[in-house]
Amino acid sequence: MAIEPATPARLRPGGHEHTFGLDQPFPGERGTRIVLVLTATTMIVEIVAGWAFGSMALLADGLHMASHAVAMGISLFAYVYARRHARDERFSFGTGKVNSLGGFAGAVLLAVFALLMVWESVARLIHPTAIEFNQAILVAVAGLLVNAGSAFALSRAAVAPATARQHDPEHKHSHHHDDHNLRSAYLHVLADALTSILAILALLAGKYAGLSWMDPGMGLVGAALVTSWAIGLVRLTSRVLLDHQAPEDLRAAILSAIAQPDRCRVTDLHVWAVGPGAYAAAIALESDLPLTAEECKARLPKALGLAHVTIELTTPSALAQR
């Protein structure tokens, strides 16, 4: 006799979802698309022109732009993947951490970029090479203009209204600084712009003052700043990826709201980020009064950004049984 396979259990219709607005496009996604097109186009033009005209400066800058095109591609992939899989039940708390994962990957690429800057700068300090100042300055200025346009596109995305939250009345809070993916893309653009500015200053000093050492010297300065940005972004994203406790002010606000003076005590509290501007909380309570978990949950202000709250409540009857 054949045994029919068991039907997998399902949540009841209308149950709690874990999309947290991630099924809608984030403002940073559109800005990242624009920057990726700008970067990739500039990369292709510089590589083709450098190859055709035998210009090592153009070819080198084109390959440099390629590294940032890869970073932009990772950021865009993270946005699209998180949005398309927002309702995938395999993700316990949705795909919000994909955003931080993209930011973490971008931070690692920033660190690699800084190491390459140090390597090349030290090599040129030890073994100076001839510089075609006019051509190099032209390339640096062109790169700076592209980066300025890219920075403008991303800065507009950073201040744009959060479309994802507008579709969800329960999540009107919008913390753009929590979009680590956008921050990663923006830092890559800033790193490129910084490199162009320092290169222009160094090349001008070399051309008109004979200070050729300024070119690799500025490379070391830029590498130090980029390393600092990379470390900061790694710290931000790793806190989310490793379920670091939420900021102290948020936990204090939860304690203040839920432990009102009615003999209700918080015995355990865990609050962690599950996406940009969205937090999950697990709260254990003891009360001498016959409260319900829903009554306790209703005390939490929606402005705190708590997208998923689990309350374990011990009531007088449960206390009596101990």
If you had to describe this structure to a student in words, what would you say it looks like?
- The protein folds into 2 domains: 27-241, Alpha-lytic protease prodomain-like, CATH 1.20.1510; 248-320, 2-Layer Sandwich (Alpha-Beta Plaits), CATH 3.30.70.1350.
- It contains 10 helices and 4 strands, in the order ααβααααααββαβα.
- A 3-stranded mixed sheet has the order 2-3-4.
- The longest helix is centred in the middle third of the chain and has 31 residues, at 96-126.
- With 322 residues, it is mostly helical.
- Strand 3, helix 9 (293-297) and strand 4 form a beta-alpha-beta unit.
Helicity level: 55-70%
Report the uncertain regions. 3-9, 161-176
| Count of distinct structural domains | 2
- The rough form would be described as elongated
CATH class of the largest domain equals: Mainly Alpha
Taking the sheet with the most strands, its summary is: 3 strands, mixed
- Give the distance, in angstroms, between the N- and C-terminal Cα atoms: 49 Å
CATH architecture of the largest domain: Up-down Bundle
Task: Write the CATH homologous superfamily of the largest domain.
Answer: Cation efflux protein transmembrane domain
> Number of helix segments?
10
Q: Which strands sit side by side, in order, in the main sheet?
A: 2-3-4
Number of strands: 4
Gyration radius, rounded: 26 Å
Structural class call reads: mainly alpha
